[in-house]
Amino acid sequence: MPNETNSTIDRRQLLGQLGGGMGMLGAAHLLASESSPNAGPHFPAKAKRVIHLFMNGGPYQGDLFDPKPLLEKYAGTRPPGADLLTERPTGGLLPSPFQFRRRGESGIPVSELLPKLSQHIDDICVLRSLHADNPNHGPALLQMNNGTITPTRPSMGAWFLYGLGSENANLPGYVVLCPGRPVRFSILWNSAFLPSEYQGTYINHSTIDPEKMLPHLRNVRWDRQTQREQLDLLRQLNAETTAAQASTHSAPHRDRSMLDARLESMETAFRMQFEGSEAFDLNRETKQTRAAYGDGHFANGCLLARRLAERGVRFVQVYYGNGQPWDTHSGHDGTVPKLCKNIDQPIAALIADLKSRGMLEDTLIVWGGEFGRTPTSENGNGRDHNHHGFSMWMAGGGVKGGMTYGETDDFGFRAMVDKMHVHDLHATILHLLGLDHERLTYRHAGRDFRLTDVHGRVVDEIIA
Amino acid sequence: MADPAFLPPPATPAMSRIAKRLIVLLGLLVVHGTVNADDYETFERKVRPLLVEHCYECHSAGAKTLHGGLRLDTAEGVRQGGDSGSAVVAGKPDESLLIETVRYDGDIQMPPDGKLDADDLATLTNWVRQGAAFPPSEQTEQARHGAIDFDEGRRFWSFQPVQRQPLPDVGGSDWPQTRLDSFVLAAMQRQGLAPTERADRVTLLRRLCFDLTGLPPTPAMVGDFVQDESPDAYRRLVERLLDSPQYGEKWGRWWLDMARYTDRTASWLYQTGQSHFYRDWVVDALNQDMPYDDFVRRQLATDLMPETEPSDLPALGFISLSPTYWKELKLPCEIIKVIVADEWEERVDAVSRTFLGLTVACARCHDHKFDPISTEDYYALAGIFASCRQVERPLVPEEEYEPVRRARERVAELEAEITKRKREKPLPTETIEKLTAEIQSIKASTPQYDMPMANALSEESLFVVRAGKTAQDGTKLEYRAQSRDLPAFIRGNPNRPGNIVPRRFLTVLAEQPEPYQNGSGRLELAESIVTEAAPLTARVIVNRIWLAHFGTGLVDTPSNFGTQGSRPSHPELLDDLAAHFIDSGWSLKQLHRQILLSATWQQSSSAAAESFQRDPENRWLSRMNQRRLTFEEWRDSMLMATDELTQVIGGPSIDLDANGNRRRTLYATVHRRDMSPTLMVHDFPDPTQHSPKRTPTITALQGLYALNGPLLLNQSQSLVTRLEREVPHDPAAQIDRLYWLLFSRPPDDRELRIGMQFLKPADNDSPATRLQQYAHALLVSNQALFVE
């Protein structure tokens, strides 16, 4: 068994080994029917799947969702007593040059940089009081994805799959889209000590040819007919040994479970070649839809995310771009409008699209970076990392729309009211998925591990 | 936000010392219960509800997890306080941690979900000021800071001495071939099971070759073995395979899983050190059958052993290649201390699980919840790893290295100078050229300037200190040529140091653990592991080898021999093997021999239905377990079948998917932060942590690789080339040859018929193409992937 416990075999782990990716729908069924304490959702889920839009590098909250008029008053200064220290030297307070307007019925102020997204603000729950433990990209990315800054723990997506399985046996259950490579790379979606089938499948979608996106999706030599013949050959050879076995009476038996499971997994892979092509093929969208999402890698990522979510992929992460594009240590005000322009229309289209398909109610969208940025200036026109207080937002999947939760201080530097740690975020997402973050455990190295370690509070206030 | 209108109660005006003392006394009296009923009533009416609402979720008997060791639901708990000390000084709110905490004045701020409002603060403050009256509980529970009963702990089975066991009575059966068979058979008999007959010779040979070398037998080997009718043919084969250098390659990888080996260390480390020296050292040590106790000592402390050559230093890779976590020195040292403490925890975890099968790292924040391992024990070990530094060291004697070292230092200086000059405007081109030329000349004139370095250790301890006067000045990492004892961090937090713990061995494994005296204590730790803890250490390694041969361990939690681990299925057998292992001078090869020559191991994996029905998990070993090949074995056997495998031992790693990479998969680059997707999909262990055993999964992504992976297309193509060379134009002979190359046997009639059917000329495909399609299918068939 994969775990280090002497307890009776954990159904989930057993299926993890044997069922593999070859039919978690069936597996989930089985799990439910056996009502094991660790099987399937712990309680009815509000969200069936999650799309995480990851602004790697760390966007500045004060430009987008957390206006701080007081910055104008103290522009260029560091008011005495204000605690504004970060790792790099920063200068005086630097007001955001971007205007806010109250939008929607909720009247939540949203930046002029996100005109299209702001039309959906009544579906969005703005979280203004996030905070994390470490202001470096690597550790912060790890904390946001894996719950801890040490690179030895499973990613949240791996926990989701471990907890719920996948809804589509013919596609990977956890897909990571990035037109390039985020810092720290594969550790951010690994399964660590969970079985490897729960790891994320990384896809570089800088080209949107499905055959280039999914590893080994296409056979460059054999056509479908040949592959079918190969699989039939394998079935025949496998069946023959069974027949040979059955023919003799005293006949020795063999353990066939692994052998049969392996053949099944190849059949699944065979189907995935076609379903995968289809799922990843943006050309199957109408011109209208393509136009609604707009152009660019991020737009493609959002549209792919919808196609995958539609097909039962449990967790899709869309990283904004290679490296850390939102990491604006200098020339901040010039860069941010471009970044925002690239995300505004696609995210707005994603929300509208999910809504029109009736999927928004059980698809949770999470938006944010690994941390935020400082209200003070770095290098005159940049902003430093800030993990003390930053904004994220969620939409759909059972969260209340048109609300803000939490507050930062007067300068938007530090979370002050209704502080929400990354652990709390994870606890809340798991809760929306029907999982109790304290009960979703895995015994490893002598103790039970959780995504939230020994922390985390479900933020009930934002749950619809 | 906090209500700015709220002000703490006016500070007590200056009082005489006597008056102060009176209040303290009064306070004590109050807490001890001489108060009037009004005080209790006030408490129950105003204070208790506050505590219930805001504190008891984490600080009462009803808490799911008691936080900070603090209970606020008993008078005793309030008086005693928690990990941070006393919570309340009766009569002195300003000196009471509880009040500081709820005011959000100090490091700890409670309640965590928001500050109390001003009225509630005033209530609590007044309660403390007036003596903190707390009614006595009906049943005051004993404080929970109970000490571990180590004497009781030592009675646990895995800590007992090992001794050879009397052979059990097996009713005169002639089945046993070796001692271990008697134990296994006796257990089977108790369960009403009978052993399965011996596997046929071909199956046995294939199983043996994969088990010892990770490679299939060649057709010639099969022929020789099947025809060799001498009674010791099998024994000679075992010897031959144990002596082959491929033995070390196969079992080296087995060890590297536990050692969380990586070819690439963190990008931020300045390192020219080459990990593969450690990998090659392991392979070599296993091939030489280095006694296991020595194998342990060398990896922990070869540099501290008198009989060490510089060429032994790569052994230290076990520790030196440990994961390191990024430390941003611009950050306050409080943050960096946590990161460094996490690294120490990683070492304690890897060392204790690998060598002792104990999860000592569980005791970082609190005493181990299940095993007799205290927080002090944890810090006694962590101090050892805090007292050594990951450094590169030359593989040649220091005198020989000296000129290279000086040259490298000089080059580093010059490079720094160039970097500095490059920032100047205008660019001092001439100077830069001169400096560059000097570097070239130093490199050229220093023999062996590029000599390889080993990832090794030095005896320096790490101190994380402030770089300046305030936290905001950042952090400095200071390495000092001394060893250090760590304080036991309260709740594992390095910013809350407790009592200093001397470096020493685990209490439960030593009667009276003496502080280590020799530098960091690494060598003494190694000695403790192989002497004081020898019974446990031997049981753990014997079980690992057993597990690798049978697929399940006698103890099925190979890295957890504590109370949460499995109990051995065959305790006497494990003891007997472990005792014999120590008596035989800790020889791993001797242990392999015992297992491989046993009737137990030689059983067939196809068994009577009864064996499966009565014992589906095969705990009683009445048959052999079928085993799926690892990715390494699968790939290597393909390269063998095509006759392309490069059989060179050791050397730098090569990217798995590099063009023309025909080396054994052992040499495929393991990159901790950028793992090969192919390896990851195929259950290769995460190299950031100790892996006790691989968890086989069967997934559709593996299926995609089997159907479409370039390796399969290349290898099937190479097979066709080989077949066309060796048995041209003869489909039946080609099928026969393929079966020999891939499965070490000829096809039976049906298999041949099915094959011929497939190879029948198809519409568009040439015979060669059809043959490749067929070969491809066989390469991914269950027959190729499983060893019976």
TrEMBL record, chain A:
SUPFAM superfamilies: Alkaline phosphatase-like (SSF53649). PROSITE patterns: TAT. This is Sulfatase.
From TrEMBL, chain B:
Pfam families: PSCyt1, PSCyt2, PSD1. Transmembrane segments: none annotated. Residues 180-389 form the DUF1549 domain. Residues 55-114 form the Cytochrome C Planctomycete-type domain. InterPro entries: Cyt_c-like_dom_sf, Cyt_c_Planctomycete-type, DUF1549, DUF1553. Residues 521-758 form the DUF1553 domain. This is Planctomycete cytochrome C. It comes from Stieleria magnilauensis.
